[in-house]
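Holo prediction. Input below; ligand is flavin-adenine dinucleotide.
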Amino acid sequence: MDGDHGLAVASRHGLGAIADETAAIASLAAVVDKDGVYPAASMQRLGAAGAFGLHLAAHSLLPRPSLAGAVDAMASVSAECMSTGFCVWCQDSAGWYLEQSDNLALREKLQPAVASGAVMAGTGLSNPAKAMMGTEAFRLRGKRVAGGYMVSGILPWVSNLGEGHWFGTIFEDADDAKHHVMAMIKIGQPGVSIKQNANFIALEGTGTFSVLFARAFISDDQLLADPLGDMMARIQPGFILLQTGMGLGIIDAAISLMREADVTQGHCNHHLDLRAHAAEDYAAGLHARIGQLAATPLERSRRYLRDVMQARLDVSQFCLTAMQSAMLHWGACGYLEGSPVHRRLREAWFVAIITPSIRHLKSEIAALAEA
Ligand SMILES: Cc1cc2nc3c(=O)[nH]c(=O)nc-3n(C[C@H](O)[C@H](O)[C@H](O)COP(=O)(O)OP(=O)(O)OC[C@H]3O[C@@H](n4cnc5c(N)ncnc54)[C@H](O)[C@@H]3O)c2cc1C
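Structure of the complex:
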């Protein structure tokens, strides 16, 4: 793993196509946000440009696979449109699960398509993560049958989905609550369907659906880990660190918004608590911490995990603080329906509530400190 930073590294290695695509995403942000249009073409082009493989050994266009590179690519996308940035995170996470799986046949079959964006993919780990923490019951249960499992249940919200898309999740063995199994699921395979049952205040264009499992046969060749074993420990730091790309992108956007506001309203903004230069200094510190943590995503120490969660928490909290300040810099112009400030504020709240949410992270950090 390389701790160096993504787009800077990418442009040194001639990966300007990722940066070019990122610029194109800006023009679609309002449509994705307001009309809930899934950015399929942007995702395919980002995939083709190599954005989803930067952290994967067999697919990285960088000299070494770099989780920090993936974080930075996601941050650049999120600075323009965080809905698209979240779809990138979903895609990156699915690639990461395949990277850590011992099922080499499944990795060989699916990872190239996920890395190149030929197949879209996501992750349904919110419920399993909380179930394993003991705060929710598993929503998916599987019964062992010849050649696989029969799985039933409903996952309320999984993103970056559509017909033929894949996602990773974990179910509990119906006959043994201590036995958990992680698998890649294809939307549209017999027994697996999606339903849109909610409207959100943002992130409407992220292909977010309920996933219904009605005695769905999940074959052994779809299993990422059975039993789950240490798979969760292997994927967790990478999964959490990748999410910081969304938050860092919003923070960058907030700093730009503060600067833009100052062009015409600078004379009124002098005494605000958080100004662009201070936000930039704090963001640079976060970026450096994340780059360092992202260099060793397979580390297992309690201290490391706590640092990863703290970094993710700090990004979430600073995302809110920075966007709040951007709103104050813009005043009533930011309060207009459809203003960039309005969209970024709603996006920043998402960073704070997506699993692990701020309250979830605080519980986990407290538990790690006590143990
Ligand atoms: C737009 C959108 C897209 C999403 N996309 C995905 C996706 O792609 N994949 C996915 O897996 N999920 C996705 N989610 C789900 C998301 O990650 C959260 O799981 C979901 O929003 C539920 O969060 P929550 O606020 O209810 O709980 P959280 O804040 O995540 O967790 C709180 C948990 O703690 C428990 N709890 C509360 N108080 C206490 C207490 N005092 N002691 C112990 N436990 C307590 C609650 O029962 C709950 O389980 C998405 C959600 C949205 C809104």
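The pocket of flavin-adenine dinucleotide is lined by residues 90, 122-126, 130, 135-136, 157-159, 200, 203, 208, 353-355, 357, 359-360 (CB under 6 Å). That is the main takeaway for now.
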